Amino acid sequence: MPLPFRPVDPKTLPDNPFDLLGRQWMLVTAGPLSEFNTMTASWGALGVLWNRECAFVVVRPTRFTFQFMERSTHFTLSFFGEEHRAALDFCGSHSGRAADKCASTGLTPVEVSPGCVAFTQARLVMECRKIYFQDLDPEKFLDASIHGNYPERDYHRMYVGEIVRCLAR
Global pTM? Predict the structure, then answer.
């Protein structure tokens, strides 16, 4: 089955990254089509690091997606139109340990390249190759109010992924 996307240069995207990540949200997905998990995220960044276009995502070790991120060399970021907000709400409030997120939301997973899963309903997909990770260290928070984001002390791991391919509808 042909992919419903066309390759695009990430440098030409018209999206505002603050709106794209912070308001529209995204699904972070890792693992092959045979065994993957996805989670909704609204924290992250897009930018340039080490002369490469990169995506920065953070995943708490308590999330089911964490183990998939750890054992995968690649991950995807899938962005959707507002008509899929309920699916994003579901994927952000239910664990893949207990729910089949695709069956519950109607999202259709598709392998965009070997070991990389996105969703046919996405309007934009970024395929990323992990190139760095760092555990966030609460002793290095310079603004004490940041601690309020971690009542369970489950500090995120940040992954830097080189954007190796960008696909759009």
Answer: 0.96
Residue 12 lies in a domain: yes
Residue 59: inside a domain: yes
For residue 86, the Cα-to-chain-centroid distance in whole angstroms is 17
Return the DSSP state at 24. S
Cβ atoms < 10 Å from Cβ of 111 = 15
Pairing between strand 37-41 and 74-79?
Answer: unpaired
Q: Is residue 25 in some structural domain?
A: yes
Q: Give me the domain span that covers residue 29.
A: 6-168
Q: What is the CATH number of the domain that holds 142?
A: 2.30.110.10
123-138 average pLDDT score: 98
Spell out a b/e string for 53-79, using b for 16 or more CB atoms within 10 Å of the CB, else e: bbbbbbbeeebbbbebbeebebbbbbb
Residue 1 lies in a domain: no
pLDDT at 1: 62
Instruction: Write the DSSP assignment of 90-111 as a string of letters.
Output: HHHHS-TTT--HHHHH---EEE
